[in-house]
Amino acid sequence: MAKTIIDAHNLSKTYNADTVPVKAVQDVHIHIEEGEFVALVGPSGSGKSTLLNMIGGLDEPTSGSVVLDQVEITKLPENKLIDFRLHNIGFVFQSYNLIPVLTAKENVGFVLQLQKIPKEEREKRVLNLLHQVGLEDKLNSRPGELSGGQQQRVAVARALASKPKIVLADEPTANLDSKSTANLLDIMAKLNKEEKTTFLFSTHDIRVIQKARRVITLVDGKVESDVQQTPK
Amino acid sequence: MFQIAWRNIWRNKSRSLVVISSIVIGVWAGIFILSFSWGLYQNNINETIFKQLSHIQIHNPKFNVENDSKYTLSPTDTIMTQLQADDRIASVSNRIISNGMISSPTTASGVKIYGIDPLAEVKQIGLDNNVKKGAYLSAGKENAILIGEKLAKKLKIKPKSKVVLTFTNVKSEIVSGAFRVAGVYRSKNISLDEVNVYVLKTQLRKLLELKPTESNEIAILLKDESQLDAVKKYSADLVPDGKVEDWKELSPELGMIIESFNLYTYILTGIILLALTFGIINTMLMSVLERIRELGMLMAIGLNKRKIFIMIMLETFYLTLVGSPLGLLLGWVTVSVFGNIGIDISMFSEGLSSYGFSSMIYPALDNQNYFIIAFMCLITSLLSAIYPALKALRLNPSEAIRKI
After folding, report:
1. Domain boundaries along the sequence of chain A
2. Minimum-distance CB partner of B7 among A59, A101, A114
3. Which terminus in chain A has less CB density within 10 A, N or C?
């Protein structure tokens, strides 16, 4: 049996606890094993992004714990947490979120630079990744010169650059047309298979849901269903 | 990260240019104000030394206290010869001084009467250059007197008018002498023009009944001011019973004026730097708030807070790095140009010349001060970047990313 890579336990998040409490996430248990390709679905406001942010250590839960690869990140001090994120988690956000002043190549290499990977190795890995996402001809383009789909592919390449164990993607296809969506999903599925990277992404796009091997449905901050499926 | 910071400042060109210009103007204004005041002091100091006091003066210690002509230095001739022989000294002159009253047909006024050797004072204080009407004193005309323009106006007299000087001689008897105005002078120091009158030393000595070897004041002009302390000590050895003072001791009010101008300079520089501070805080804060999402993303992908802080500081540092040299250059050009042609402040000079200030100012500044100003601007801008940078640190990545 594969080992557990994400273990969220009793996770709750309440916003505005002092004034008008909004329970975004309530008592969520999630176990995800290494190499899974999981979609987190649910209507707007169901707490998908909040849950992803807590799992990624971007947001602090009101109660409960998150254990990633045997490290309880909810107990890490801020700087260690940032470091943990740097080495173990790749993020892809809804609206591309690349560094606008850096080229595609530099954006992908940035994380590696932060990890102090030597220049030669960095170059190699960056070229390889951009090749995998089909952007070898856009190496020196800045985000402003790329289409939405291309930017998102750079973001995926960046998320994978540090060889993270987990990639968290918050509605990665929300701003993409159907062709780019299919293209991005194929790339993600391929990388998931080849690199054994665990993917957890939130979405309410039916085409994306169909590609997942496991679908967790969130309603009003609670897990409503958690089913395995064969991707189409 | 250095690269990101550098590229970040060029994202919003007009904003960066505003910050750069404010740094340029800050540095430039700082240099200009400092060089202007420095020019003003230097001008004033030179005026005081070369037109009025000389570098060093020697008096009988009691003369300083009681201002009575009977307290003299002696033997003047021997002292003079020895001082003149010293090659550190540019010129020496000795004077007889008495306080008395000058009367014209209409009115009278208190004056300080200088008995001088006209030729020596040409070299010593350039007195002949100040004569505006009539002629300078010359050896032949025994009863000639040189008076200031302001005093002439007060006494309603002009060259060739007759005046009477009344004072006490060394035996404390009241004596009077009739003089004819040879010339009217105007120096840069109007308040002294009303008080100082010049007559021939031989004439005044006769009236005071002093011996030929006696004088009240010896003034020494140096070739190089750095020799001041050495020559002061040499003179003290030469005239053991005299009191040797340099121009700073002789004119404490000059020091006070300089001090108060220094204070204004600091206040003005402070205001400039304060304006710079707020400009930078404002701009950097805008640039941070504008990039909240991006900063949140940087934190999410693993840029720690220390690095975010450094990045914001670097951006400010780069802006200063671009602005300061430009400001320095502009300041240097301004100082060089105006240092040569001078700045005419005659609009305000009526007030200034009563303090002994000249109306032409030649700004000047030490090289060292340029760097002090640039350094101060750098420190100021880095200090003012701290608040925006801290603001960036307080961001919570998930909230920052959610912001649109």
Report:
1. 4-228
2. A101
3. N
HSE, CB side, 13 Å, CA atoms: give it for residue A16: 6
The per-residue pLDDT for range A112-138, each reduced to its tens digit, is 888 888 889 888 989 988 888 888 888
Beta-bridge partner residues of A37: A199
Surface-to-core class of residue B260, CB atoms within 10 Å of its CB (0-12 exposed, 13-18 middle, 19+ buried):
exposed
Taken in order B337, B342, B348, B351, the sign of the CA dihedral is positive
Phi, psi (degrees; rounded to nearest 5) at B386: -60, -45
Provide the 8-state DSSP code for A147: -
Count Cα neighbours of B205 within 13 Å in the Cβ-side half-sphere. 16
How far is the C-alpha of B30 from the C-alpha of B264, rounded, in Å? 12
Cβ neighbours of B104 (radius 10 Å): 19
Portion 52-91 of A in contact with B at CB < 8 A: 53, 56, 58-59, 78-79, 82-83, 85-87, 90-91
Long-range interactions of A143-147: CB distance < 8 A, separation 24+: A143/A96, A143/A98, A143/A99, A143/A100, A143/A104, A143/A107, A144/A100, A146/A104, A147/A180
Which residues are B166's β-sheet partners? Answer: B101, B176
Q: Per the CATH hierarchy, to which homologous superfamily does domain A4-228 belong? A: P-loop containing nucleotide triphosphate hydrolases (3.40.50.300)
